[in-house]
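Q: Give me the 3D complex with 2-keto-D-gluconic acid.
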Amino acid sequence: MPATLAIGPFNDAETAALKDTFDPQMLANPAALDGLSAAEREAVTALAYKGHHGLGAAQMDLLPNLGLIANFGVGYDAIDVAAANERGIKVTNTPDVLNDDVADIAVGMLLMQQRQMIQASDWARSGQWKAKGEYPLNRKVSGRTVGILGLGRIGRDIADRLAAFKMDIHYFARSEKDTPGWTYHADPVSLAQASDYLVVALVGGPETENFASAEVIEALGPEGVLVNISRGSTVDEAALLDALENGTLGGAALDVFLNEPNIDPRFYDLPSVVVQPHQGSGTKETRAAMAKLQRDNIAAHHSGEALLTPVN
Ligand code: 8YV
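A: Here is the predicted complex, encoded as structure tokens.
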């Protein structure tokens, strides 16, 4: 079989399945490519990729016979697809199988933020419930207005869930969708103005960088909450931190950040922020499905069949 290489922080189950199927060399990150011999690099025709380190032209040039980069994840902003195109390298991702989990965590984080579930849990555990009585009142979530910034597959699943919370659904997308009863906004600032909550569900990459801008954050306002399950790059993080610190934004619930996992420590000092360690797709069931889809794409490539989920 042609050689497969695996790069990234694959867990034990993912590693075992990759080894069973393709017996790849396993590298921790793209920088480790430098440690391979020329013969090892030349043998590689498919790459199983996981993680958020950049994979660009320089790394692709170290693998002159590479035909496929199979990404573990729906977002492939770490991979330079233009550079892959120039070299005739196909790229695949793992769409759809993670929609439910990511939508679940977006809704869960919103509830955690508005119902102050972390602080309320501490209140009970620390004895304050017994000593001081009932927890201070927080905010009602059902029936409010939510803006979904990016109505792709995951954005739509989030909207469907929040519709069941009797919310008024507003959204921004590149074009208006067939969504009776939901309100389209061509401008993210107008979306934020209309919304109590803004859920960022954009794809990552240069086109969406800082899309949730300082103006969008300001328009959401002092009672507003920003939820981000997409990529840290989609939100102007400096403006977000300033707005949270000076109270011009009410709160945030974030699964993604710039510079993960070395996130800005200012987030830890803000009680109005729910912080999650980029675990949107992180269930055993979904990660197994993502890993299988990645392997199926590699198997299809090696046997000359059509790729299941190509992105280029
Ligand atoms: C990551 C994700 O793939 O699918 C995505 O785009 O962000 C995640 O599911 C996961 O963190 C593994 O790197």
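A quick observation: The mean pLDDT is 97.
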